[in-house]
Design goal:
The protein has 189 residues and is α+β, with helices and mostly antiparallel strands. It has a domain of 126 residues: Glucose Permease (Domain IIA) (Distorted Sandwich), CATH 2.70.70.10. 13% of the residues lie in helices and 30% in strands. The strands form 2 sheets. Strands 1, 2, 4, 5, 6, 8, 10 and 11 form an 8-stranded antiparallel sheet that branches.
C-alpha cells in the first residue's frame, strides 16, 4: 500500500521537511495570535487584554515616530514600546495616564525621568522622558495629567517613549490602543 499524500500532492519525505512545515505553521499562528484584536484572549492563554475603550494615548495630538519591534527572545534587540512626538507648538506638553491605575514610580532611571503606572491585571505602563507631577501612590484615571514631556531618554529628542509590560513581559502598546488612528489626507500644493 502506497503512502497517502495530502490534497496538494506533496508528501513530506523526511522528518526535516515535516519539522520545517510545523515551525512555519507555528510562526504564522504566533504572529496571528499576537496581532489579534484588543479584548481577545492573550497569546499565552492568560487573561484577556482590556478593550480599547479602557486605554487612551498618553500624548495628544501626536505622530508615531517609531513603532514597537518585538525582540526574538527576552534579551534580543528590539524596540519594546512606541515613540510618539507631540504635534503643536507647546514646548513641554502634558502627558496623561493611558488608563486608570496607581503611580508606582516617578523619578530618575539611569539619568532619565520616568513615570511607571500599575494598571492592575498585570499591566504596567512606562513613560519617558516624563518629569512627574504626581508622587508614587497616587491613584490616577485615564486622561489625568501625570507628567510633562522632558528631555533625555533613549528616544529621539522631543519624543515620548511609551512601553507596556504584561506580567513582566513587554507587549505592543498598540494592542491596548486599537492601532494607529486613521490617517487624514490633507490637500497638497
Amino acid at each position: 500500500m502506497a503512502p497517502r499524500t495530502p490534497a496538494g500532492g506533496r508528501h513530506p519525505t523526511n522528518r526535516r521537511e515535516g519539522l520545517r512545515l510545523a515551525v512555519v505553521l507555528g510562526v504564522v499562528l504566533a504572529v496571528v495570535a499576537g496581532l489579534g484584536p484588543a479584548g481577545a484572549a492573550a497569546p499565552d492563554g492568560g487573561a484577556a487584554i482590556p478593550h480599547t475603550e479602557e486605554w487612551g494615548w498618553p500624548l495628544e495630538p501626536f505622530r508615531l515616530v517609531r513603532p514597537y519591534i518585538a525582540p526574538a527572545h527576552e534579551y534580543a534587540p528590539g524596540h519594546r514600546g512606541i515613540d510618539i512626538a507631540p504635534v503643536g507648538s507647546r514646548s513641554s506638553p502634558d502627558i496623561v495616564a493611558p488608563a486608570e491605575g496607581v503611580i508606582v514610580f516617578s523619578g530618575q532611571v539611569a539619568g532619565r525621568p520616568v513615570i511607571t503606572i500599575d494598571h492592575g491585571a498585570g499591566l504596567v505602563s512606562t513613560l519617558e522622558p516624563a518629569a512627574g507631577v504626581l508622587p508614587p501612590g497616587t491613584a490616577v484615571g485615564r486622561g489625568d495629567v501625570v507628567a510633562a514631556l522632558s528631555a533625555g531618554g533613549h528616544s529621539a529628542p522631543g519624543t515620548l517613549h511609551f512601553g507596556v509590560r504584561r506580567d513582566g513581559a513587554y507587549i505592543n502598546p498598540m494592542l491596548l490602543l486599537g492601532g494607529v488612528p486613521r490617517a487624514v489626507l490633507l490637500p497638497c500644493c
